[in-house]
Design brief:
This protein is α/β, with parallel strands linked by helices. The chain has 2 domains: 168 residues, Hexapeptide repeat proteins (UDP N-Acetylglucosamine Acyltransferase, domain 1, 3 Solenoid), CATH 2.160.10.10; 82 residues, no CATH class. It is built from 7 helices and 15 strands. A hairpin with a 4-residue loop joins strand 14 and strand 15.
């Protein structure tokens, strides 16, 4: 028990720049207190002392403002920062290294007893303040849930979920889009990541331009190879354009950047 407590204290000191000492963490962090009391409540729950487990959970809620059902499974190294208003349901599972901010709900959408009604968080998941993760879905390892997002579907590992209802942003796709746009003197992140028509159209144009650039580069390689392998092949026209022309300044002006 003390080894696990030491691990919890160490993870808080590592992730919270406001934490100054182990004594401060041990005495002044309600997230740590709630998790410690939850382990007692969970131990009672798995031994089928349900009423006593719920009583300990209720006392913990009264003292810390954090409500964790005694049936929830929480690994070591979980950090509940600030924590007021956090609600974690009975069948929720939280992996090692997760960080949960205030006002988060890991809730259920089913009324069937015994069913998997609450979400499963993988390792090192970050759930922002006020986010709601609802249903027996899985949030993959290293994923992030943005503040006030409402998640009602699985979140892949390493992805980010934002908005209400939550949209899944794949980090790899956004990185590719930004790399393609930066070559044109334009920032893809200057385009808002919401669902308005202008945003979607601009993101589509960036992706299309990147695809066309790749196809044109492949055609130039094929033409150069053909010319080298066939000496009698006619020279390419002198005015053949080898560089794409993308008027980034005009796009930026339209978007008010």
């Amino acid at each position: 028990m003390f080894a696990r407590l030491n691990k919890d204290i160490a993870c808080i000191l590592e992730r919270d720049p406001a934490a100054r000492s182990r004594l401060e963490v041990l005495t002044c962090y309600p997230g740590l207190h709630a998790l410690t009391l939850h382990r007692l409540a969970h131990a009672l729950w798995v031994r089928q002392w349900y009423w006593l487990g719920r009583l300990v959970s209720h006392i913990s809620r009264f003292l810390t403002g954090i409500e964790i059902h005694p049936g929830a499974q929480i690994a070591a190294g979980v950090f509940i920062d600030h924590g007021m208003g956090v609600v974690i349901g009975e069948t929720a599972e939280i992996g090692e290294g997760c960080t949960i901010y205030q006002g988060v709900t890991l809730g259920g959408t089913s009324l069937h007893k015994g069913a998997k009604r609450h979400p499963t968080l993988g390792r090192n998941v970050v759930v922002g303040a006020g986010a709601q993760v609802l249903g027996g879905y899985e949030v993959g390892d290293n994923a992030k849930v943005g503040s006030n997002a409402v998640v009602t579907k699985p979140v892949p590992a390493g992805a980010t979920a934002v908005g209400n209802p939550a949209r899944i942003i794949a980090a790899e796709v956004d990185a590719q889009r930004e790399a393609a746009a930066s070559k044109m003197g334009f920032s893809a992140y200057g385009v808002t990541q919401n669902d308005d028509p202008v945003s979607l159209a601009m993101r589509g144009l960036i992706d299309s331009a990147a695809s066309q650039e790749h196809q044109i580069a492949m055609l130039w390689q094929a033409l150069e190879t053909m010319r080298k392998n066939q000496p009698d092949c006619a020279e390419l026209p002198a005015d053949a354009a080898r560089v794409e022309a993308f008027e980034a300044d005009k796009i930026n002006q339209i978007l008010g950047k």
